[in-house]
Amino acid sequence: MSIPTTNKQAVEIGKANKRKYMLERVSQRVFLFCALLSVITLLLIIGFVFYKGAHPFVAEGYSFIDFIFGSDWVPSEDKFGIFPMIVASIYATVGALIIGVPIGLFTAIFLAEIASERLAKIISPAVQLLAGIPSVLYGVFGLAIIVPFLQDTFGLVKGQSLIAVILVLAIMMLPTIVTVAETAIRAVPQTYREGSLALGVSQIGTIFKVVVPAAKSGIMTAIVLGLGRAIGETMAVILVAGNSLIVPTSLTDSVRPLTTNIALEMGYAFGTHQEMLFATGIVLFSFILILNFVLAKISAKGGN
Amino acid sequence: MRHFKDNLLRGLLWLSAFLSVAVLVMIVGFIFYKGIGLISFDFIFGDYSPTGDGGIWPMIVTTIYTVLISLVIATPIGILAAVYLQEYAKQGRLVRLIRFATESLTGIPSIIYGLFGAVFFVTTLKLGMSILAASLTLTIIVLPVIIRTTEEALKTVPGSYREGSLALGTTKLQTLYKVILPSSMPGILSGIILSVGRIVGESAAIFLTAGTVAAMPDSILSSARTLTVHSYLVTQESGDIELAAAVGIVLIVLILVINLSATYISKKFNKSTNK
Amino acid sequence: MISLKKAKMGLLMLSILAVLSACTSNSNDKQTSDGSSATVSISGSTSVGPLAEKLAAKYTEEENTNIEINQIGSSAGITNAISGVSEIGMSSRDLKEEERANGLNEVVIAYDGIVVVTHPSNKVKDLTMEQIKQIFTGEVTNWNELGGDDLEIVVVSREDGSGSRDAFQEIVEYSSGELIRNSIIASGNGNIKTTVANNKHAVGFISFEYIDDSISTIDINGVEATAENVLQEKYSLARPFLFVYKEGQLTDAGQRFIDFILSEDGQLIAAEAGAIPVK
Asked: B39-274: which CATH topology?
């Protein structure tokens, strides 16, 4: 073959390479843009919700302190205090975590480490399926089974109560926690286990001292997702919370968490009332942001 | 002592697993027990009738619309975003910002998405209470789910795959399409499944953006009612637990079918990549 | 690898199809709004909603009209009618002054009674208006003060902004601020009914349409809660079902639907649904 052709080939290859690199650069931009979309939507959401929610305090002279610490919520009489709801949301979420996280996590460990392959193969997909069950159905279940159960068995005056909310939320976050945590635990390399067992550590010891710590980031994800599901749940909670406007002092009080306040009244609220519901949304939102911040700190520490 | 502790923990593991399974079996059992009496061909494929003896076909169609539209938008964006975060981005402030945004989006209660959708899509973009407004809201809701699960899936692809491929002289993009994405496909699919579940199961956000019209939607700009919203409304408005449970059965079967087909697909993928 | 490509193609086709169908249905939508089949959008009260749906179902059997009904509560329906989001708003309470000031027209399509309900096992079957007020404001907290068993009273109310609640409070004469704080707030007639039916402590109020065997109804001053007693003005816990629309906003299709509701056929359907006909 003569030299010019190889030159030509070289040029061709060069052109192809150029195109390749071009494509490479363009695609990287596209990927970046897609990744940035989540930042953009977050900003949009914050912007719109805060704009609407801050309006009464900025332009209409309502006191933000009274809004947070006020205990009267009577929209038709222009009273907007959400302290009872803040307390209710915190109690309900913490309660659900106390019950749901240990059980969910232990179930995940059981499925990944203890259960025979056959048993795990039956249970895991079933639990996965349950993660997809609409939360409304948990509410229907709560209303038809848990509420009467609390009334009849424990003699509660009303089954719609904080404890009913906690139980429904705990049950609801189970599939999420189990599914995600199980995946994380299974992803821990087999060599970790073998190493630990070879050192004479028992199976249980290995699980809790080696495997679980190694899967920490995944387990954290599981808890965050479960928490997100619990704190954000609205429709199921409306059905079992009772939605009373009191600061709960016992598990048997009926409560109104922040989310249900929004869903109950958003449908017909307008003017200041509607803006106050957006303000309720801001409070809910701030909780989540603080939570994410704390968790980011925790997992950063864990990483070291 | 250590044996005692081990046995105690082992016992707790068994107990927890038993509790989880028992509770979940109870819920499904309850729904089927309550609702199965109403299930019939006419119930599923019949048109809605306000007198109560009609079917739920319009709600099924509405649900399918929302799932399709949301996924068509969210899946490509989510996967590409995850690819950027895992394969391209250098750790730094930008990535931390994106991660923080994604995690925050995951944690935002759906009722707030509903508020946002009602102000932004319904009012500001003038889409009205419609399937489209609800689907766009749902797109934002499932985006972080897809990003997160895709990222997890990409993490599990061994570095040696990438190195091997790059060593053969392929570009990063080729490696991505030919090696990395195919081998993380099952993980990505599980993310999409989770998303379908989330969309089908979502109620609060849809309630505020799609409305509650109980009729067959004319177009994606019609206001309509999904299965979950229907189930909620019949519990709330008519106190009809049996009807709510019957709708629940349809929802569960729908999710079961989606799950099974997804498992089947991911198995096929595994075979083809192993070859 | 082949199956991957196939799957990719499949996905692509699917998305194209979805986009296409979206486009075509969009254009369909435009055609229908220009063409013969008009759409009447109605939103509002969850008490009026079921009746409006039944009327619409009957009406659309014969007429080529789409009737969209969103049940979102009275106040929201009225707001929508004012802002033009909906052509017609449904309300289960009288309009407030400031709402009327926005140039709203109202048509009474039927009347409805509100009935106080308790658990079937409750011995209390008759109350005075004053006693009802005492119960809902928390002055009386035990059924034995009203001649019943020694059981704590659990009050169940609708949410603030519900037309039924507004109408009830206006007639019984107490304000939202006076409602006993630990009352259960249920967001629908059905929810109140199931709550009361499952709790022997509970008392609530629902629309006549929802009365059935699962709950026990309370007479007021010895007058039973029936449609006749409402019509003869013996039973005072009643309110109108309204269709409201903005002056000049009503389309021909909307007007024809209202005409149908007020016709003999329409009123017959209303009566069958448990509401009280206008005539």
From this structure: MetI-like fold (1.10.3720)
Architecture of domain C41-111+240-273: 3-Layer(aba) Sandwich (3.40)
CATH fold label, A69-303: MetI-like fold (1.10.3720)
B183 near C CB under 8 A: no
pLDDT digits (tens, 9 = 90+) for B90-113: 778 888 888 888 877 877 888 889
Residues in chain A: 304
Q: Which pLDDT does position B268 carry in this prediction?
A: 67
Question: Are residues C176 and A74, on separate chains, in Cβ contact within 8 Å?
Answer: yes
pTM of the model: 0.81
Q: What one-letter code names the amino acid at B9? A: L
Is B107 close to A224, i.e. CB distance below 8 A?
yes
CATH H superfamily, domain C113-238: Periplasmic binding protein-like II (3.40.190.10)
Distance from the Cα of C257 to chain A's closest Cα (Å) equals 24
Residue type, C9: M
State how far residue B91 is from chain A, nearest Cα, in angstroms: 13
Half-sphere exposure of B212 (CA within 13 A, CB side): 28
| B73 closest CA partner among B127, B129, B142, B149 | B142
Would you say residue B30 has pLDDT above 90? Answer: yes
Nearest CB among C72, C177, C181 relative to A267 is that of C72
pLDDT tens digits, residue range A177-193?
Answer: 998 899 899 998 989 88
Contact B237/C26, CB-based, under 8 Å? no
Interface test with B, best of A51, A235, A261, A292 (most B CBs within 10 A): A235
**ipTM score above 0.85:** no
For residues B212 and B229, what is the distance between their CA atoms, to the nearest angstrom?
A: 7
List the domain boundaries for chain A: 3-61, 69-303
Domain residue spans of chain B? 2-36, 39-274
